[in-house]
Sequence to fold (336 residues):
Amino acid sequence: MSIQTPITEDTIRPHDIFEEYLRLATLDIETYFRGVDMVYIDCPVCKTPGKEVFTKSGFIYEECNHCKSLYVNPRPCTEAFDKYYTDSPSTKFWATTFYKITESARRETLWKPKANLVKLLIERYQSGSESINIIDIGGGYGVFDEVINAVMDATCLIIEPSVHLAEICRNKGFKTIEKFMEDVDRNEIPEGNNCFVSFELFEHLHDPGQFLQTVYNVMRQGDLFIFTTLSGMGIDIQILRENSRSVSPPHHLNFMNPRSLATLLRNVGFEVLEANTPGKLDMDILFKNKDIIQDNFWRNYLDYSTEHERNAMQDFIAANGLSSHMMVTCRKTAKN
Ligand SMILES: [Zn+2]
Fold:
């Protein structure tokens, strides 16, 4: 039996490197988003007008009274994001320095557990006996695909628009479509048992409903879609609000929650199989930030509790849909 180092925030986001990333991101906000056209939206799930709950770096976060989704409104126009994600210093730092330094820790602490979860979900919901095709939307470095290949019989297809990242995936031997998801043709998707996946992408999307429709349109009947994103009902985000490092505008635009995201998926036509929060970091993040927490209960609890008690609390939070790390499994059931 191997002894595993417990996962903490520092394992995947080393403090100094993450601070440098945040410094560059702050500079980029000025360069890429100052003075651009802004788009006003209602709640991306239920179209109810939201109410302002806090601001950060000049961006307003609104909460929907009805479904509790948390989202940036107004948000910069899509052209500003295209430029930012193509050539900004902070995205380059993330893709090169930050990622390289943390890749091996991330592989162990994030990707391996994720691959095992995806394997379980596929076994639970994909009845066919033939091997599975994984279609990884925004596959980045293809690490998930390497890891899932090690735990199950899967053929991976990566959709990755960045020239640099797509080349890395190809060099690892993966078939790679170098396109944005909205430009992918259904004929490029293999026949057979398909499971689409996307990790930590949804919170970045300018129009989440449109993205889900795009994915739905290229899927075939019976295909699965499993993805992860941030939940705005997650305890660390609810307590820390603008002080949460996950609340990082304009990168993170949408924080839905298990219920609101299920609603949005059903509106598109998906059958929602599971919407859970298997997160592990909330209590660690709160513990490290206990000195800035205003709420009396949580500030005192974090001071008073033992590590063992906080771990038990984390398990409770994850089991009850209250972690900020969310995982959703849905299926296309309609014929078309
Ligand atoms: Zn809403």
Observations:
- The first helix runs from residue 9 to 12.
- The first strand starts at residue 38 and ends at 39.
